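Tutorial, part two.
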Amino acid sequence: MVSSIRPRHSDSVRDTTMTCLRRYQDKVKTITSDNGSEFAQHQDIAKSLKARFYFADPYSAWQRGTNERLQVLIRQYFPKKTDFRHVTDQEVQKVVNRLNHRPRKSLNYRTPAEVFLGQKPIWLDWLSVAIIG
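Running the prediction step on this input gives:
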């Protein structure tokens, strides 16, 4: 029974990863994951996105430092043991928007939306409303 679950799970991770990142393919150069079996299809992901795929060493969270830091930020909104069956898509999207527009020291105090998507920071909109309005 377990062996029949694993391939479907890795298929799902592969398909979801490729779907989410395909539109950013020109920006995705590398992907680093942990060694979970859900990444069994990593070669398909790497080939599809034309990116290099790396695996962090076991118990070496620092090799995925940005990811680990993002998890800390996410936990501010969704503490451990949050039952996501009771979290709406709108609530998740609100957190995504907040985190994507939050300045990061690692990005020289720019936001991920600025660096990755080329979007101006939303705080500039707030500032212009405060000055003009």
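The helical segments are 2-22, 42-49, 65-77, 89-100, 112-117, 122-132. In part three we will examine how such features are distributed along the chain.
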